[in-house]
Each structure stands twice: as structure tokens, then as C-alpha cells.
Amino acid sequence: MSLPKPSVVIFDMDGTTVRHLNPKLLGFMEWLDDTVYKVSRLWTWIFERKGKGPLQLTQPEQPVKPPKSIIVHKAIHKLRKKPVELLVEPCPGVMTVLEFLKQQDIPLALVSNGLGKGYGQDIVQKFGLDKYFGVTIFREDIRKSKPNPEPIILALSKLKDNYDDGDLIWYIGDRHKDVSAAQAAQKSLPCQIIPLAYGMNAAVAIIEKGYDKRNILMTYQDLHEMLQDIFKDKAA
Fold it and tell me: Strands 18-20 and 88-90: what pairing?
């Protein structure tokens, strides 16, 4: 049984759209990102607790002030000298999936906790991902990173103005925080959002949070076949 047909699909970047040729580097960056998030969350809880409503599907009127933790990411990217094609490559089969979704006129967005300047934007340009993603969200664009839902909400607001119960959002990620971010985004959306796990870390979160096992992707080839089945009525 296939998943419901998406009207919008959002992809995480590292580990989902591209994979690192040096897995240890990816592991370190993920650990660093998780640690920074936990520290900033504790800081906010202690010093900045205020009653705030849910995130809205609107873009901020003022430019986003980059978080202090962005300094750490800048330091990492200054240390590396290699071009991005020597650091990462597209995940196997992902380009076929992106091309298929583009042919179906499905709006696509790329959302990452990583820095855009000197890294994410280079990846997008080097591998021609700008051909598919109408919106890209990086660390500079947000105040709070995943598992906070802000990056997802911002991406959706930039893709189109209004959503209703006829919309269905797919969010594909490889980490526990991706599933958590999608689940949290649901509270601010008038439509359903379905997290899809690409990788074991996110797969564990899918099971823990009670989502269907269909939401776990083993390969992009499997996803491509699923999409062909979902959209076959449209093709006919």
C-alpha cells in the first residue's frame, strides 16, 4: 500500500540529499549540531522563557539575526579546503526521484541545519540542485534549527502563500531530529505533514513516534517506484 500523494515535498540535505564521502565528518557535524541545539535550548529555558504562540506560515518582516552557534559552523567550513565535490556526493537514486517529482510539478524545498555560505549553496550549485529546489533554507535563514520546526515552516511559507486540508506535505530526513521537526510543524499547519525516514536514525524515530512503517525508505529506488505507482493515474 502506497503513501498518500504529496502536494509538496521537502528534503533534508546532509545524509538525505547528499552523503558525505567521509562518514566520520558527517557524524561529527551531526553530533556538534545536536550539542549546540541542546545547549541553546537549555539557555532559552533558563533565561528567555516567555509565552509564545505556535509558529505561523508567514515570513519574518525583519531580517533574521544569525544565532551565535553559527560561528561554530563557520569555523568548521573555514578549516576545510577541499571543494564540495570531494566532500559529498548525491545519495544514490535521489536525482531520479527529484527529476520525477519535477515532472509532476510538485514544489520542492531543501532544508538544512548547515551553513549555506561556503557549503550548502556550493552543493546546490555544483550538483545542479537549483534545477529542482525552488526554495533552500540554511542556518543563516533561521533563528532555531531542527528539531525546531521553524526551518520547515519557513520553507513552506516561501513555496506558496496558503495551505489547506487538501494539501499534503512530505518531509524526508535521515535523523531523529528531522522526524521530530516534522511532527512539531504539524501543530502550525492547516494540512497534514508526513515525515519519511531515509536512514536508520530516522527510522528509529518513525517507530518510536508511532508512524507507519511505510514511512521508512530503504532506498531511493524504492521511493521512485512508489511515486510511479502513486502518480500513475495522473499519467494515464
Answer: antiparallel
